Amino acid sequence: MMQVLDALRRKMAAGSQKRFPLREVLDACLKSPEVAVLNFSGIRMGQLVQGADEFYKDFRNKSIAIQLAMRYVRDQLNGKPDKDLADELAGWRRTANK
User: Which position has the higher pLDDT, 36 or 85?
Assistant: First the structure.
């Protein structure tokens, strides 16, 4: 992604003296809550698969959407506190089992 941004910056700089704050805009976008939930950088596919397998071994999680399971595994791998994970999971279970 950084290569694309660098190429875009060079192209824009060649065509105009006006500078655009691409780095700042990208950083702000990546930190926004809407995009932050989609960030799985630094996590290997094998870790996600193994984590999802463990997640669904618990019968109470069978009706929880895979997207939520992947978020749970990602957060667990990134060191989110167990209490926060448990609270989040309890809410998902209540919603999924209605």
Answer: 85
Length of the chain: 98
CA distance 54 to 23: 38
Q: Tokens 């399971």 correspond to what residue?
A: 69
Answering whether pTM is above 0.85, one says no
How far is it, in rounded angstroms, from Cα 88 to Cα 67? 14
Question: What are the tens digits of pLDDT across the range 22-76?
Answer: 888 878 887 787 777 778 888 999 999 999 999 999 999 999 999 999 999 999 9
CA 90-93-96 angle, 5° bins: 150
| Helix 66-77 / helix 45-57 crossing angle, nearest 10 deg | 110
DSSP codes joined into one string, 18-81: ----HHHHHHHHHHSHHHHTT--TT--HHHHHHHHHHHHHSGGGTTS-HHHHHHHHHHHHTT--
